[in-house]
Write a structure and sequence with these properties.
Oligomer: single chain
Shape: globular
Bound molecules: zinc ion
Helix content: 25-40%
CATH superfamily: HIT-like
Largest sheet: 5 strands, antiparallel
CATH architecture: 2-Layer Sandwich
Low-confidence stretches: none
Number of helices: 3
Length: 140
């Protein structure tokens, strides 16, 4: 047993780290979409966003921002960047340790980012307001 990301953090398995501090680590992905693909993970084992405190979450995103800028300055091919975090199996989360991918994208790189098309008939304003109301109450 054991979490593969925790093992990367502890270097129990081979890893190439780009950056590390007390809170997060940035690691080269071994199945990169394009060269430079990395991910940022909190060092503490955190399975989902609901367990992520805002300070750590902010630090993850701040590190992703800096890594995105580093990618663009690095000389690697990078026409665009996707930041991708999968929270939950239905969102594509495969490892139960939250991590934010920083994926350099190259024009015509053959990878997609596909969602099914939205509703054929857009919701009316009343429906958008009803849903926003649910979210406002839950947001607190
Ligand atoms: Zn872990």
């Amino acid at each position: 047993m054991g979490c593969i990301i925790c093992k990367l953090i502890s270097e129990e398995i081979e890893v190439t780290k780009v950056y590390e501090d007390d809170v997060v680590v940035a690691v080269m992905d071994i199945q990169p979409i394009n060269p430079g693909h990395l991910f940022i993970a909190p060092k503490r084992h955190i399975e989902s966003i609901s367990e992520l405190d805002e300070e750590v979450g902010s630090h993850v995103f701040k590190t992703a921002t800096r890594m995105t800028n580093a990618l663009r300055r690095s000389g690697l091919k990078c026409d665009g960047v996707n930041l991708l975090l999968a929270d939950g199996g239905s969102a594509g989360q495969e490892i139960p340790h939250i991590h934010l991918h920083v994926i350099p994208r190259i024009r015509m790189d053959g990878s997609g980012f596909k969602f099914r098309k939205g509703s054929i008939r857009p919701p009316d304003r009343k429906e958008l307001e009803r849903i926003a109301g649910l979210l406002r109450r839950a947001f607190g």
